Write the C-alpha cells for this entry.
Amino acid sequence: MVPKSLRTWFVIHFILDFIFSIPLILAPRAFLGLLGWTSVDPISARLVGAALIGIGGESYLGRNAGLESFRGMLNLKVLWSGSALSGLLLTLLTEGQPVMAWAFVVIFGGFCCLWSYYRVRLGREA
C-alpha cells in the first residue's frame, strides 16, 4: 500500500518543481539574476527547468498510481535529487557560487532524504 503522506508529497513536489521550472524556462537570466547568479547559461538553466517539469509533472500524473509505479518513480527521484545535490556541493566547494545556491543544497538534500526514506519503506513492504 502506498502511504497517503507520500501521495501528498508527490503533489507538493509537483507544485514546487513548477514554481521553479517556469521562470527557468521563460526567463533564466532574470530569474537566476534575482537569486544572485552573475553568469547564467540559458541552455543549461532551461534544461534544468525541463527536467523539473518532467519529474514534477510525473509526480502529479502518477500520484494515484500503484505500489510498483511509486517504487520506479522514487528510484528516479532519489537518483535525480542525489546527483543534483552532489553537483551542487561539488560546485560550491570548488568554485563558490551565490549564497542562494546553499538553499538549493538544502532543498535537494531534503528531497533526497525524503525520497530515500519512502523508497526504503516501500522496499520493506514488498
Q: What stands out?
A: The mean pLDDT is 94.
